[in-house]
Write a structure and sequence with these properties.
By secondary structure, this protein is of the alpha/beta class. It has 20 helices and 31 strands. Helix 13 packs across helix 15. Bound molecules: adenosine-5'-monophosphate-propyl ester. Adenosine-5'-monophosphate-propyl ester (PRX) binds next to helix 11, strand 21, strand 25 and strand 26.
Length: 648
């Protein structure tokens, strides 16, 4: 991202936040006052907020238990139920008729689901799951398109204390199998298919393929009929969602679970090994999803229509399409299809048609829509928008400016939110009506979050300097670990600074005014269109092909996707263009289409140091077409460089 980083570093524009005295945090004085509360009484403040915002079955007496750090526990002796906080309490407050979910299908079909109707369906689904043998602590994998039933399935799991693990619908059967097995799931909830670009993208066949080999843990597959595509049916294992729900009563008492009960597992990529099952706990995650909705989006549950465009297969979809807005009792919009179907105006048409007020998306989508031209948004009435958000990757100032002017009409504040699967919710972000924004900067840590930029020794860098991004105190929505691998959790996140800090894996810089600028990953994790992919995962997928002897994968800058995937491959056989397409298809099969390399370059060897380490920095320079600055005198075979530099 060197071009983008340069433009970010030269950025000097500052935008004052709009005045809004009704905002939850209307100015910086409020922000500093809130921060000070945490400075003065860290656990007391968290405890007070948790009592204020969550409906507890049993109150907690301990706020933070750090006796076994870094295995922190929050509100540990409290008991709570997620679905009750997202549904029952709003219905009991007389809001049963308020719209919880507005859903738009790709074909234009629209559904408005009230809180009362959503609660009834969640109860039926929870009862149906119980009837299929699901009990507290069991794992349920959800592999679904963006349809309301996906949210129903998630909430139903939480109602009966089952831990869900949503797997992104575009992941392949192999990737699904790996996750189902790692989680030891007893049930898979899926759909026959979902709609993408006017066609049905089949899902059930991937589940069938995943379960064909292995996955003995899975007893049933619940199938939502949505795409209308023909699917095989395994009697005894496969169950029709609608039939199963119709047979159930619409009442199911929410099961109170410990605040630390694993709410969900969500797999994400790291720099080594297979994807990690990030575990989130119920109480702390619930609290932070509410607070960040209120602080960062200034969410007003009685008047806002909130739209986060992320798929529920990612953490953004968990926290800000489902749990955050529903826990606040507001209206969330779900859209099933792609942003450019039938044309590049689709997102803006949806905003206009449903009166979206808060809109949250990824820079990659913004960049793609900039390319499509201003005429598309100009066709639609975007005057209801009041807050805009971005997430997932650094936003280049040009894209920020376009978002601000063309989409936000120059009046909507932009919140550039930095966070991760592991953090559960926002960590560093402007507050829309308080923080003066700088295009490309996530600005300051949120109240309660103690983030720093440090050098390799863990010393905070001065203003105007760069380093590694860390979080120096635990926070309620932090990951509780990696499913089944406590040591990996400690090693990945805590070892770098001897257990003192959470290491995020990102580089960052603090400017003269103390603003944080996120510079991207410092490990071997790629960020492709806001999707996180491990280079090692793609390398493993490549070497699992019979023709491949060795592979190294690096990222290179890409104008739309942020980063593109470049693979250097050593073959066991003759190179050919056909083989390149075959390898791309093979990676799609192993992981999913999002992991397909953009460039594949064949060579006789990979550049390695005398000790045998692949020279990745050199490969990154080559992939980007940059001048090689690295000292390559230790390189055994210099001819290799010329080969690798030869383009497709
Ligand atoms: O590199 C950072 C980048 O996305 C990574 C986290 O990816 P994931 O766990 O998939 O979660 C994405 C959605 C929360 C981070 O380590 N990232 C996320 N938000 C930003 C960002 N980079 C720059 N600016 C952001 N606002």
């Amino acid at each position: 991202m060197s071009g983008a980083i340069e433009s970010v570093l030269n950025e000097t524009r500052v935008f004052t936040p709009p005045d809004d005295s009704a905002a939850r945090i209307p100015d910086m004085a409020h922000y500093h006052a809130l921060r000070k509360r945490f400075d003065d009484d860290f656990t007391g403040t968290w405890g007070e907020l948790a009592r204020q915002h969550i409906h507890w079955h049993k109150p907690f007496s301990s706020v933070l238990d750090d006796s076994d750090a870094p295995f922190f526990k929050w509100f540990a002796d409290g008991e709570v139920n997620m679905s009750e906080n997202c549904l029952d309490r709003h219905v009991h407050a007389g809001l049963g008729e308020r719209t919880a979910i507005i859903w738009e299908g790709e074909s234009g079909e629209v559904r408005h689901i009230s809180y009362a109707a959503l609660l009834a369906d969640v109860c039926r689904a929870a009862n149906a799951m119980r009837q299929l043998g699901i009990e507290q602590g069991d794992r349920v994998v959800i592999y679904m398109p963006m349809i309301p039933e996906a949210a129903v399935a998630m909430l139903a799991c939480t109602r009966i204390g089952a831990t869900h693990s949503v797997v992104f619908g575009a992941f392949s059967a192999n990737a699904l199998r790996e996750r189902v097995m790692d989680a030891g799931a007893k049930l898979v909830v899926t759909a026959d298919g979902g709609w993408r670009r006017g066609k049905v993208h089949a899902l059930k066949p991937s589940v069938d393929a995943a379960l064909e080999k292995g996955c003995a843990c899975v007893e049933h597959v619940l199938v939502v009929k949505h795409g209308g595509n023909d699917v095989d049916w395994q009697q005894g294992r496969d169950v029709d969602w609608r039939q199963a729900l119709n047979a159930q009563p619409d009442i199911c008492q929410p099961l109170a679970v410990d605040a630390e009960h694993p709410l969900f597992i969500l797999y994400t990529s790291g720099s080594t090994g297979s994807p990690k099952g990030i575990v989130h706990a119920t109480g702390g995650y619930l609290l932070w999803s509410i607070l960040t909705m209120q602080w960062v989006f200034d969410f007003r549950s009685d008047s806002d229509v909130f739209w986060c465009t992320a798929d529920i297969g990612w953490i953004t979809g968990h926290t800000y399409s489902v749990y955050g807005p529903l826990a606040c009792g507001g209206t969330t919009l779900m859209y099933e299809g792609v942003p450019t179907y039938p044309d590049a105006g689709r997102l803006w048409k949806i905003c206009a048609d449903h009166g979206v007020t808060v809109f949250y998306t990824a820079p990659t989508a913004i960049r793609a829509l900039i390319k499509a031209g201003d005429a598309w948004p100009k066709k639609h009435d975007l005057s209801k928008l009041r807050v805009l958000g971005t997430v997932g990757e650094p936003i280049n100032p040009e894209a920020w400016m376009w978002y601000h002017e063309v989409i936000g009409g120059g009046r909507c504040p932009i919140v550039d939110t930095w966070w991760q699967t592991e953090t559960g919710g926002h960590m560093i972000s402007p507050l829309p009506f308080a923080t003066a924004t700088k295009p490309g900067s996530a600005s300051f840590p949120l109240p309660g979050i103690f983030a720093e930029v440090v050098d390799l020794e863990g010393q905070a860098v001065g203003k105007g300097q760069g380093g590694l991004l860390v979080v120096t105190k635990p926070w309620p929505s932090m990951l509780r670990g990696i499913w089944g691998d406590a040591e990996r959790y400690r090693d990945t996140y805590w070892q770098k600074f001897d257990g003192r800090y959470y290491f995020a894996g990102d580089g960052a810089r603090k400017d003269e005014d103390g603003y944080f600028w996120i510079m991207g990953r410092v490990d071997d994790v790629l960020n492709v269109s806001g999707h996180r992919l491990g280079t090692m995962e793609i390398e493993s997928a490549l070497v699992s092909h019979a023709a491949v002897a060795e592979a190294a994968v690096v990222g290179r800058p890409d104008d739309i996707k942020g980063e593109a995937i470049c693979a250097f491959v050593i073959l066991k056989q003759q190179a050919s263009d056909d083989l390149k397409s075959e390898l791309r298809a093979h990676v799609a099969l192993e992981i999913g289409p999002i992991a397909k390399p953009d460039d594949i370059r064949f060579a006789d060897n990979l550049p390695k140091t005398r000790s045998g380490k692949i020279m990745r920095r050199l490969l990154r320079d080559i992939a980007a077409g940059r001048e090689i600055t690295q000292d390559i005198s230790t390189l055994e075979d210099h001819r290799v460089i010329a080969q690798l530099q030869a383009k497709d």
